[in-house]
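**User:** My hope is that you can spare some time for a protein that puzzles me. I have put the entry right below:
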Amino acid sequence: MAIRDVFFPLLNYPEPTDAAAIAAVVDLAESLSKPCDTAKARRQVRTRISALVLETEIEPGLYFEGAHVGEFLEAEARKSAANAKDLANTFREIAMDRPVLTKCRIEKRNPYESLRLLVEEARVHHMAVLPVRRNDSHHQEIAERLIFESGCPVLIFPERPIRPLAGSFANIAVAWDGSRPAARAVGDAMPFLRHASHVRIFSATDDKPMPSAARGREFAQQLTSEGVDAIYEEVKKTDQHTIESYVAAHSPDLLVMGAYGHSKLREFILGGATRSVLVNPPGWIMLSH
C-alpha cells in the first residue's frame, strides 16, 4: 500500500512551526503524488496532507504565577490564537496550486489534551510527519507519544536542518538489528523501499558475533530479487551516536529504524539510539515501534 495520507501536526506555542518546515512536508507530499498506471488510463494519484493546527489553551499556573496573572494569560491566549490562525494561513498558501490534497483545521486544547488528540488523529492516517526542534523537550515528547502510542510510522525531521532535506527518497538507509521494532519499521517503509534507487541495510556490531546479521543479508537479497538495488553491511559500533555517524558518512535521503522504549510511571524510557535521533535528528527519519 502506498503512503497517500499524511498527518501533519502544526504547533503554535510558544513559537509556531517554521514555514520552511511546512514547505518541506508539502514538497515531500508532492514527490509522493506520482502518476499510477491503471487498466484504462494513466492518472495522477495525489497525496493528502491532513494538517492539524493546535491552539494552546493557556491555564493558570502552567506558565506563569503572580499578581498580574490575568493580564499575562489574556496576552498569551491572544498570542496562541494569532499564531494558530497565521499557521493555518501559511500552510494553505504554501500548498496552494501544488499537486497535493490538503485539509486543515484548528483545535484549541490544553497541553495534556493536545497530546491525546494528536495520538488519536495519527491512528487514522497512513503516517504522521513531525518537524522536531533540536533539543526541545516539548517536541520530543510529542514525537515519543506519536511513535509509541499511535500505531503508525512517524516521519521526523529537523525543523531547522543544517543541510538541505531531500525532496524524495531515492537513497535509503535501514538500521537493522533483527528485533521486532526493526522488522516493523521495514514493513512500514516498504512503499518507500520499493521505489528507492539504492538501499543500504546496516547493522552496528561490536566484537561479538551478531546472529541477526544473517537476517539482514537475507532481507537485502529479498529486496534485490524484487528489483531493488540493496546491499547489506556491518559497521563498527562505537557509542549511541553510531547511527548519526553512518548518516553523516553516507548522506541517505531517508533513515529507517525501529524505536525502542517502554513506559514507566507515564514517562518513556528510551533506548540510547532512539533518544539520540529524537534530540538531534540528522535528516528525514522514519521510526516505528
The first strand starts at residue 5 and ends at 11.
